[in-house]
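User: Run a structure prediction on this.
Assistant: Running it now.
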Amino acid sequence: MRIFSGIQPTSDLHIGNYLGAIKQWVDLQSSNDCVFCIVDWHAITVPYEPKTLQERIKEIAMIYLAAGLDPEKSIIFVQSQIKEHSELAWLLNTITPLGDLTRMTQFKDKGAKNAKNLCAGLLNYPVLMAADILLYQTDIVPVGEDQKQHVELAREIARRFNARFGETFALPKAQIPKQGAKIMSLAEPTKKMSKSDAESSRIGLFDSPEQIKKKIGAATTDSGKDIKYDTEKKSGIANLLTIYSVFSDTPIKEAEKKFANTGYADFKKIVAEQLIISLEPFRAKKKEFKTKANYIDEILENGASKARAISQTTMRLVRNNMGMA
């Protein structure tokens, strides 16, 4: 199966990004044909700092490798190095109804938060994402719950293109993790953990033990005492149980039994300790990769070469079927 996915080089990635996407990638790479991208063109749809963009790109590459992606098994590259992404995005724009884009949940949410910075790029973000996916004849897109709608649109665009111009693209499907698909904010546990919210609301993959203890200790819970998984009445506790469950590989029901007679303060300490242990390899590997800048560059260059070969094959077919070749 051809697997494709990618992450923006914006702010530091958090545990929600890891559980919703990267952890799946690592599990899939041994038995599938995997293509993983650093989607820097997506990152510029909102205000950003040009001086640090390249640094962010390298950091995402380090995260990919620290998480366990193997460049011998997976293609790892930077989106902007493959011009076919933008070419295909423009062509797909010509067959994508405007109404489909204005209905996208993320567009509406980001538009509401950043009305002054609303741009055409943010509206067309899903078409570029569709191009990213379809360019590599993708079968499966492992993503978090928040990206499912975009993958479904990519599938619809592919279906529409094939019906109009002949069989061209594979029809992709989203793959959502059964557990940990949506990690919630530590400050507002009814909202998804987000890179755009306050740093105290999320656990970064490279957070220090002290930062983790402080953030988990301050996490919003409720006035009760029972440690039960109830996303409506005890959303904060449910979120912490989910975090503990996925990082300790303990089913939720077993975790509830384990903490049946534990107070909130002690429960938070145990969750924090589990996170510190689980994220230690990320901190150690990042420190190691910081000294291997040339190695990172080489991986990205080799990945771009492999990705370019696939994308050019797809674009020859697209141009031919659209009467442009």
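The longest strand covers residues 2-7.
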